[in-house]
Specification:
Chain B: InterPro entries: Glutathione-S-Trfase_C-like (IPR010987), Glutathione-S-Trfase_C_sf (IPR036282), Glutathione_S-Trfase (IPR040079), Glutathione_S-Trfase_N (IPR004045), GST_C (IPR004046), GST_C_Theta (IPR040077), GST_N_Theta (IPR040075), GST_Theta (IPR051369). The complex is a heterodimer of chains A (240) and B (240). Chain A has 240 residues and is of the alpha+beta class. Chain B is built from 10 helices and 4 strands. In chain B, α1 links the parallel β1 and β2. The chains are: A alpha+beta (240), B alpha+beta (240).
Chain lengths: 240, 240
Amino acid sequence: MVLELYMDLLSAPCRAVYIFAKKNGIPFDFQFVDLLKGHHHSKEYIEINPLRKLPSLRDGKFILSESVAILFYLCRKYSAPSHWYPPDLHMRARVDEFMAWQHTAIQQPMSKILWIKLLIPMITGEQVPDEKIERTMEEANKNLQQFEEKFLQDKMFITGDNISLADLVALVEMMQPMGSNHNVFISSKLAEWRMRVELAIGSSLFWEAHDRLAKLPDWDSSTLDPSIKLRMSEFLEKYK
Amino acid sequence: MVLELYLDLLSQPCRAIYIFAKKNGIPFQMHTVELREGEHLSDAFAQVNPMKKVPAMKDDDFTLSESVAILLYLTHKYKVPDHWYPRELQARARVDEYLAWQHTALRRSCLRALWQKMMIPVFLGEQVPSETLTATLAELDVNLQVLEDKFLQDKAFLIGPRISLADLVAVTEVMHPVGGGCPVFEGRPKLAAWYHRVEAAVGKDLFREAHEVILKAKDSPPADLISKQKLMPRVLAMIQ
């Protein structure tokens, strides 16, 4: 039975898993769970992941959530080239450190930018107060700076000369604001690293994975199911 | 040179590392970083961890932050018994899954519950709006339920018959609201039974030793003005 990956490429963690699987020639069935249609709340999907989050992996009877866990699982099961998750104690620790730190330091702020700049105004018709926008941007910028100074430094990639899972996860997350036409790769160091990672992945695969995000501003949010909009309102309160 | 660990046992992730190192006979020099005095915000400590957070580790010239990364580093370097981070693919994935999930879920609720319910009023002499505290305690409840229903289920420990890193990280987190006077185990016999099993597997003496500080935290003398000024910006982030 072939591996199943439950994903919507609007989600950064899904893009990391998608790119990794494709890049490493790992055969899988793409089970599309449409976030914009609220399919992550469907009965079928709740059986896969009662927490209603993406991505999920199903390998026979084994179901796994959390993109970091999925990436490690795929890496090990399919014996991906060692640069993705280096065996060297220190290099591996650096990847682990980034993977732990990014949940709150990168993923959340980057996602927040997309919500604040595009999704909240689009769905609710309301603008988010300037002061909140400013605070979000300040935090995002501070963390991007920490990323540069601590994780990237003067190296080509986070662990040194080769791309690893850390670069992949970092980049797909930093791409999230692009869905609202906001570019975080302003410093030349960050922009150069971004290009390096894109090239290491392969530009064609990279942009294929980001196509749905790039088209997000064209989404007609009036098609949003009212019951989904209701569910979202609680979620949106967090960002207002 | 011996491994150096920069810890304050007030902090949940520090307790996990302390217990793990002691339980596995890993020799280390302990540097206590007094969080309540703002020592983590000092320039001296920034040399060890520019993120200004505990825990931090220094192994000769190699510095590392993020408790999950440190636990994995110690696991690999000191070749601890397999049950902590099983080599078996799916069992290891389950540990990874828990360690990834907890950052933005249980850890976040436990930290906020402790500070909003007890530390901010008792230690900092400020009140937290009651609706904020209510929401935090409700969120804690939800995450404890997920811990029971998704991760523990009917197993002895989170991933199976033996204690792993997942249990250690989970139990030290759950002790945080316990230190804040939250009745975490009330009406949760399954969780309480798991707690006792983990405590026994760790060893009651070591468990008690690691939790002395958090259990006495409610008797913290009020912060002096200087410490309070240093701590408030980061603490305010815990109320939002």
